Amino acid sequence: MTPDSSLSELVTPAQRHRVLALTPLAHLRECWARLDITVSHRCVRGPDIGMAMVRGRMGGSGNAFNLGEMTLTRVSVALDDGTSSGGTLGHGWIAGRDREHAELIAVIDACAREARWSRQIDEALIAPLTQRLAAEHDAQSQQAAATRVDFFTLVRGE
Amino acid sequence: MYVAVKGGEQAIANAHRWMADRRRGDRNQPEIDVEQVREQLGLAVDRVMAEASLHDPGLAALALKQASGDLTEAVFLLRAYRTTLPRLADSVPLRTADMRVERRISATFKDVPGGQVLGPTYDYTHRLLDFMLLAEGECPAPARAEVALEACPQVLDSLDAEGLIEQEVDDGAMPYDITRDPPDFPVDRATRLQMLARGDEGYLLALGYSTQRGYGRNHPFSGEIRQGAVEVEIEVEGFDGPLCIGEIIISECQMINQFGGSREKAPQFTRGYGLAFGRNERKTMAMALVDRSLRAEELGEPVESPAQQPEFVLAHADNVEASGFVSHLKLPHYVDFQSELELLRRLRREHAARDGGGTADEVESARAHEMDAGLKDTTASAPLSAPSSELPSESSSESSSAPSSAPSAPRRSQETSA
After folding, report:
1. What is the pLDDT of residue B378?
2. Does B385 map to a domain?
3. Contact A149 B175 (CB under 8 A)
């Protein structure tokens, strides 16, 4: 599959964030480095470690109830653009307690909100990561499929 | 009179040092790594997360290591840790229908769209000890089918479409949160489910079992049990929509139970629901049974069994609270006990003076008399200052309410401290 050239118009910050949050940090770091976007930034909020209350639904579709909490790390960064007011903001929210992962997501989010980088990020980072994620999900689904029961009926008598 | 006694610091420090040594065990054995616990004792990790009501596999593994494998102690450690964290967000309710399924079975229909998917399970094993695990050996990679799984819609949807089962519809109600406000009985179903989700698995299993044996019978079928990864989304500013922060593994159980109905409404199957962090199938099945039994009143069934009594079931489901209150009996009660001893001696003296002698039976009745009198000095207990830090949730409950003298214990909210 080749990245769709019209993809960049379709990728929203929330969609980007999903892919970045579902990609393991080591792999994300590696792929981001290959883009060779160098920019300095500063954290304007966090990194903070806290929790999200996870909700479920009765019967899967009914009223919400509180299932329990999960750890969550958030960070907001501003890109350094030489102005005192600060540059483009970016946000990262990641399950767990990995500050570095949250910060990297926030930096990528901020860069992707800048016109000069958004296309490159969507095509050279988000698109291949989306494919990697789909391939990984497929592989896991194939493992599950190998445990699917094939029923057969024993015909007894004539 | 209040007498404060201090002491034992050195003994406590040395006891903890010994505990650490015991935890480490034989130094000729490699020390167990938290990552190993997380990877290789995953079901224990999942149980700790569910009952601590905090999803964080790494910290749950740490808690297990720190607690030498004591699940209840590990739950306490993780529950205590959660009190140190701020709440940053609420999730959008999980869409379990969109779960990336690793296991999905139905005991009600053989042929369900997507099929019966066993996933990684201990079911159908022979429960024979596997001595091969004593030796280091290669573990083959899981088998992989050529094609991925088909979509696995919720099994109960098909009954729902025919109107054969009560519908679960979202009316948009904000769920009550027992971590913010202590539960006030009677509680609604959202509150019950939150309390059951963190309830002790063994306790819920026993209660669920009791309903099957006839104490609050409601004849269940496992409509669907599923387990797999769901994406967690939160609503935050700065984005165009809900934000995915990652994936967690969860287990879900949908029980189908016997009928409800009325003159106006045709009979329908009813539901029990179980949901838990991690791979916690047994827990979710027990939870679904108990969820259903606690709906007895709502569904017009006679409430005659323990598992149908919300206050009894829910007030005792939390093992952090339960072990805290039971464990506090280990704390010094020197003054309490002295007063009882004093009282007993006085009663026996009076008894002897009255009719010149007493039997064991009469001593018993003297004790009952003393209990009636309710003379309990509770304020002057717990003279040791240091050990109370081990049981932080208990320091106030001793004096506030004493369930031992009030079996229908009023709600106690230690949640605020744990």
Report:
1. 43
2. yes
3. no
